[in-house]
UniProtKB/TrEMBL annotation:
GO cellular component, one term: cytosol
Keyword Isomerase assigned: no
Family annotation (SUPFAM superfamilies): C-terminal effector domain of the bipartite response regulators, CheY-like
UniProt keyword annotation of Transcription regulation present: yes
Coiled coil: none
Protein name in the entry: DNA-binding response regulator
One Pfam family hit: Response_reg
Length: 227
């Protein structure tokens, strides 16, 4: 049974979240503040996090969580009453995997949590090797020639997705949907910027790439490697 941790300080909302997630067959632990939830995060499969919390805000905690090696890949659904576009982008860029604006329906809540769980529990390999490149999925680390590439979370997510699907071409729109999420409000230029940054980390020549190949008029793909 998947374990979902909920951090929400409004008792009524907290109770609604717990009721519907448990009704969907999930094990749920609820907390009103981030510090109280910390001991439970190690066993969590997903986190539902409110933006506005007493003490440390959900957004601040999310940034801290993404810097924690043990929790950087924990899927996070952020809840907020903030509906402005800039604030939604800020939440997603800070590391949220998905975003739900209050008020929301129980069906949408459950569907979004289940989508996060499917995305992370679909039996993806723990270690991906492409020649000198090794991607350690649980540790959220990528190494080339045994040197850590020190990627940002989005860079790591993009690299991992393309590596898992090596040989297949993805358009910029598809990559935005698969890596950033359907609710991401940025443009396709975001993908180009991240590919450029990844190539710099990898020492990849765009004219003769070892790894990330541009397919003119179509998008990007990770080149396959023969053992």
């Amino acid at each position: 049974m998947s374990h979902v941790v909920v951090i929400e300080d409004e008792s009524t909302v907290q109770g609604v979240l717990k009721f519907h997630l448990e009704r969907a067959g999930l094990r749920v632990s609820t907390f009103s503040a981030v510090e109280d939830a910390l001991p439970s995060l190690g066993s969590a499969d997903a986190l539902v996090l409110d933006w506005m919390l007493p003490g440390e805000s959900g957004l601040s905690f999310l940034r801290r969580l993404r810097a924690d090696r043990d929790l950087t890949t924990l899927p996070v659904l952020m809840l907020t009453a903030r509906a402005a576009e800039a604030e939604r982008v800020e939440g997603l860029e800070s590391g949220a995997d998905d975003y739900l604006t209050k008020p929301f329906s129980a069906a949408e809540l459950v569907a979004r949590v289940r989508a996060l769980l499917r995305r992370t529990q679909a039996g993806a390999p723990q270690l991906i090797t492409l020649g000198p490149l090794i991607i350690d999925v649980p540790a959220a680390e990528a190494r080339k020639d045994n040197l850590n590439l020190n990627l940002t979370r989005r860079e790591f997510d993009l690299l991992t997705f393309l590596a898992l699907n090596a040989g297949r071409v993805y358009s910029r729109t598809e990559l935005l949907d698969k890596v950033w999420g359907a609710d991401f409000l940025g443009g396709e230029r975001t993908v180009d910027q991240h590919v450029t940054q990844l190539r710099a980390h990898l020492g990849d020549d765009p004219a003769q790439p070892q790894f990330l190949e541009t397919v003119r008029g179509k998008g990007y793909r990770m080149r396959t490697w023969t053992p």
